[in-house]
C-alpha cells in the first residue's frame, strides 16, 4: 500500500515537471463566466441526455458554463494520466469499483465541507453513498445505480405451466429444468432455463450467500473459503449437472441481454439496461421481472454505482461543487433518471418518479437495500481477472471448483502483495 501511494505521488511530481504550464483551471472570459469541464463515458445516448440536464444547470447558473468531455476508450487509464499531468477535468465520473484506488492517493476533493442540511444527504440510499466514503469522509456522490433482477419470458413460463416466479434458488433450479427445452427431440437443447454470465461482477453476492467474503480486512482475496465455494457450487451444478443453464457463448450469443432476447434462455439475471434493449430490439417479447431468488434464506443481488467526484486540483471548486450539487440534487437527479436507463440514488426521487410502483422497475429498487456493492478495495481488478479465468475452467469441468478457486486466490494474493 505504502509503495503504491508513494509511486503514485512520484508520478505526480514527474507529471508536474512535464506538464509545466498546464492546469486544470478553466478560463474565465471577459464577462466573468467560468467554464468547467466534466469528464464521463463516451456514450452518445448518455451524452445527449446529460446535455439536457447540463442545460438546466446553466440556466440556473448563468455565471458557469460546463464543457462535457467524453473519454472514448480506456476511461480510467486516460483519467489517471490526466490526474498525473494535472490536466484532468474539474468534475468526473468515478465507478465504485475504482473509487478506493483514487481515494487512497488523495487526488479527490473531500466533499463534507460543501454539503449543507438543505442538500439532504440522508435522502441517498446508504449503501450507495458509503461506496464513496472513507473514514466518514465523502469523496463522491452517486449519480445513479443499477441492481440485478430476474427477467423471465412470460410465454415460456405459461408453456411450462409456471404461474409464479421462483422465490428461492432451489425453486429457480427446478424452474430452469422445466423451462429447458429440446423442441425437436434430437438431444439438442434449443432453449435453456437460465442464461448465466460466469464472472465475478455478477457472482460476488453468491460468494457471500453462505457467509463467505470476497476479501479480508487487509484487502486480500478470500473467495476460496468453504462458505464461498458453497454458493459458487450452485452455479456450477446448474450448468454441469442439471444442464439447464447456459452462458451466452454456448449458444452463439454475445451477452446476457442477447441470450434472453433471442429466446435461447427463458430466464436471465440482468440490470435495467436490458429493458430498453428488449424494447428496441425484441419489441414482441413478453417478459417481466422479479427480485433475484433467495439463497439460504437471504436476499442477494449486485449493485453498480457511479459518482460525481471533484478533482482536488480544480481551480474552480465553488463552481465544480455547484455542478455536483445540481446533478445529484433532487431536481437534477429527477431529470437525469426519468428515462429509466439508470435509477435514482435518492429515495425521494425514486418515489417521485414512481419506480417503486412500476412492475418492471420495482424489483431493482427493492434490491438497493440489500445488494452487494461491486467494490472490494483497491485490488479488486487483480482479483476479478484471476477469479474469472479459473471459475470458467471449473464450470466447464476442466478442474474441480475448490482447486480452481484456490489457484485463483493464491495467484491474486501474490499479485496484490507485489502491488502493495
UniProtKB/TrEMBL annotation:
Signal peptide as annotated in the record: none
Alphabetical keyword list: Signal, Sugar transport, Transport
Gene Ontology CC terms: cell envelope
SUPFAM superfamilies: Periplasmic binding protein-like II (SSF53850)
Pfam families assigned to the protein according to its UniProt record, in alphabetical order: SBP_bac_1 (PF01547)
InterPro entries, A to Z: Bact_solute-bd_prot1, SBP
Keyword rRNA-binding: no
Locations listed in the record: Cell envelope
Superkingdom, natural source: Bacteria
The UniProt record lists the keyword Transport: yes
PROSITE patterns reported in the protein's UniProt record: PROKAR_LIPOPROTEIN
Similarity field: Belongs to the bacterial solute-binding protein 1 family.
Name assigned to this protein: Sugar transporter
